[in-house]
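Chapter review: from sequence to fold.
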Amino acid sequence: MALIDLINENVVKVPLESAVKEDVFRELINLLHSAGKITDPEEIYDAIITREQLFSTALENGIAIPHAKTKAVNTLTMALGISPDGIEAESQDGKPSHVFFLILAPPEQTGPHLEALSEIAGATKSGSFRRLLITARTPEEIVELFQDG
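The token string follows.
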């Protein structure tokens, strides 16, 4: 499944309202719940927090990819949130995270999960693309950026 197949206006939040990473997780999980993609937000939050306790999923260059495998989803599911000001998320480079890709996958589906992580890494490698994401003002702009990319 291609990354663009997971991104639509219903699962993109621009800008994020939260200022703390755990609240960002809840905000994105609630977005998935509102979009009808998940049924148990608390189980998913627990899975994300458990994974995050192993080590932070905030990478470098303003990108964070909180993810978890959980039986609370039947297929690869994703939400995307943008924080123009950035949020402290214990990133590898010590800088705030601006772009949050929350990815959920069922425990038995390793391939699509790893594929999505790889696609995100490739898509966000470009500094200009990251800047376009961070300065986008609407979910529609975000979806367009991925469609054009």
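Two observations follow directly from the output. The chain has one domain: 3-148. Residues 3-148 form a domain with the Mannitol-specific EII; Chain A fold (CATH 3.40.930.10).
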